[in-house]
Please model this.
Amino acid sequence: MRKDPEGGKFLRRRAVGAASLAITAILAFASVAILFVIVGHVVVNGIGSLNADFFTQIPKPYGESGGGIAQAIMGTVMMLLLAALIAIPFGVGTAIYIVEFGRGRFAELVRFAVELLAELPSIVVGVFVWALVVRNLTGYSGIAGSLALAIIMIPIIARGVEEILKLVPDSLREAALALGTPKWKVVVFIVIPTVLPGILTGIMLSVARAAGETAPLLLTALGNSFFNFDLRKPMAAMPLQIYTYAVSPYDDWHAKAWASTLVLIGLVGILSGAVKFFTRRWKHESQ
Amino acid sequence: MSPNEGQATGAEASDGRMMRSLSDVIQDRGLEQRVEQDLGKGIQIRGLSAFYGTHQALEGIDFDINPGVVTAIIGPSGCGKSTMIRCLNRMHEVIRGASVTGSVLVDGQDIYAPDANPTRVRRNIGMVFQKPNPFPTRSIYENVITGLRLNMRRKAKHEYDEVVEKSLRAVALWDEVKDKLHDSGTALSGGQQQRLCIARAIAIEPEILLLDEPASALDPTATMKIEDLLFELKTRYTIVLVTHNMQQAARASDITAFFLADERHIGHLVESGPTRQIFMTPSDKRTEDYISGRLG
Model:
């Protein structure tokens, strides 16, 4: 039998390889497991309280059974819509400025500021809106809540869209410029249509992120146990409703907190699913 | 044969072969008479220097481009030939930090004059790039009329139809795509995409057509079609062709300009003249070295 001169090293390499694979696989499994434990726990605890009333009724006072979080779902949707309307032009505009028009130090400064804004703790945003808007202008209101959410969304949109715009090859911009197209038309008619699905993805990610924000709403929208379609008045939101139910001493409300959490996770899940759907279709189409 | 002997005699022999093969492809197309006629617009380049930030890429270029002929710009990589052609329609300055000094006269007007509008300049000068770059979100039809749609007065549908057919016929693409005009332009082959890009450039009816290594990303068959196209197009446009392929310059051009970077990596025009003269009897030693394959 021939002896492999490198036999010992070969075995050792294989052992190291197998160990690396095992360790990374266990870590990856643990990360995924955390998600499943959370979602599983929420489903087990929350599914029992879910029924049609939960989506159509407002909360009942403690002691009465039934009731729902319809006003919170509605408040969240209304405030998210208004926040998106505010944040989209600012976020997309900032990204277009940074990538397409910005030159030199000012553009660098804008990019740096956007990064800082993205890293700002959300409670700081809440305090800021409370101090400037709630105290001076509107009082606790849906508008103030929307503003706080918009401030959370702007840097997320700006950074997402910035990355997407950078994916557009310069050769496309040059092709359009060489036809005698002014720069703004190149951006509006060539660059943006090319990456529109990616831009929508960035916007939806920011909406999904804002949907779960609690801290900025505590100090701005305040919460409401009744239906309120008036954005000038305090407004309910799902994260606030979860908070209210969770800190209460009642078992029935705890169960409702779980159920509300389940609905919120469902909403964020639907948004993320839509994002995935858009990106996949986009990739498919661009091939 | 010792290696030293081989170098000397071998190089001469290969020179001879190269000269013969190039002389086969250079065609006499009655250049002298063509230059006299007024076909499209000429370009006069005067004291042109180009920069990328602080790095100078071209220095002191003085060069006339005659109307109605194909002018080839050749030279090794990094000699500034692409920079040169991008200076002719003010596309050089699109790159961040890039700048130009000197002047380029098109039809007697300096396109670098303070009141010259780069957007307007580019509408009279079409450009085709190294890599085919059709707009991916637009159909073949829409790609051709992008320039009209974005930058010209609105036209009726049948007028757009006419422009599309005329432009695609001019690049010999009409028969291949007439049944799928509304398919995406990116679904075409590389050579078809490049001809689509040429169609897009001539749809706005420029007077000058700039081609920056238009065939370098294409296979030999597609390359041949592009070169054939140049013969057709030069009756209507003043064409400037950048190429690193000397055979292509010899085959497709009437006038050749040879560019070379000096030891500071700054590009200069070494010499220019009728293609036959540049390839057969270059007056500069460096041109001869490059043509014969000893340089670059």
